[in-house]
Specification:
about 260 residues; TIM Barrel
């Protein structure tokens, strides 16, 4: 799969909370490698998310969906529509990780039901094996409890990846709810989770709002991929920057 040059081989995704079919096209044209469709927060519902997934290229390994719970019913719908990864929020136990794997993987790894909702979704000699290889079970660790139980969570058979939620993790430490921490308990948790995921052959990702912070994480080898930005935040930034530039231009013009 082609990856953005700016990522240096590390996939760069974005969070999408709006029910738009156009956003993934614009993001891909800009160089993003994939998307995390966010059904936990924002305006994106199940029907819209399934439609967007069907519009994405079948071979996009980073067509992810973050669900609001471990309910297997919407997870099955998202997978049958083409999701290549399911992100489960606020995982704090081995049992929750096992539930995610069960809903995401075909037997013998899980108990996902086999349904021909899209033709040739997983090309391969054995469809179920190809499906298990193609789909990632991703736990989001975003609390102190999750970090403390990381070893039991990450060692879950069938688990593919850990995604760090830095803002919520900060809140559980009594800190402001923001990401991109340079030091303190959140930064320590990133380093610790890097050790644990490496030991178990599981990939590690994180949300970031700053390109420079993302570049530093990649340079230090702390994460394998990043969710860089949220559609609403990126739009808000573009609106503010555009109007600020207009104001500056008018101010300069009035004094010249």
């Amino acid at each position: 799969m082609k990856r953005s040059a700016l990522g240096g081989g590390n996939p760069v995704l974005y969070h999408q909370s709006l029910p738009s079919f156009s956003l993934p096209e614009w993001a891909a044209a800009a160089g993003y490698d994939g998307v995390i469709l966010d059904l936990q927060h924002g305006e994106l519902g199940l029907e819209a998310a399934c439609g967007i997934l069907r519009s994405l290229p079948r071979d996009n390994a980073y067509a992810y969906a973050r669900v609001g719970s471990l309910d297997p019913a919407p997870i099955l719908r998202l997978l049958d529509s083409g999701a290549r990864g399911i992100v489960a929020p606020t995982v704090e136990s081995r049992a929750q990780a096992e539930a995610l794997v069960a809903a995401t993987k075909y037997p013998p790894l899980g108990n996902r039901s086999l349904g021909p909702s899209r033709p040739a979704l997983y090309p391969g000699d054995v469809y179920t094996e190809a499906g298990n290889d193609a789909v990632s079970a991703v736990v989001q660790i975003e609390t102190r409890a999750g970090v403390e139980r990381a070893e039991e969570i990450v060692s879950t058979p069938g688990l593919d990846s850990v995604y760090i939620g830095p803002a919520d993790l900060a809140v559980t430490h009594g800190l402001p709810g923001r990401g991109d921490w340079e030091d303190g308990p959140v930064r320590e948790a990133i380093a610790y989770l890097r050790e644990v995921t490496t030991a178990h052959g599981v990939t590690l990702g994180i949300y970031s709002g700053r390109p420079d912070y993302t570049a530093a994480l990649f340079a230090e080898g702390l994460v394998d991929y990043v969710g860089l930005g949220i559609d609403l935040v990126l739009l808000n930034r573009a609106f503010n920057d555009t109007l600020a530039a207009l104001g500056a231009a008018r101010s300069t013009g009035s004094t010249s």
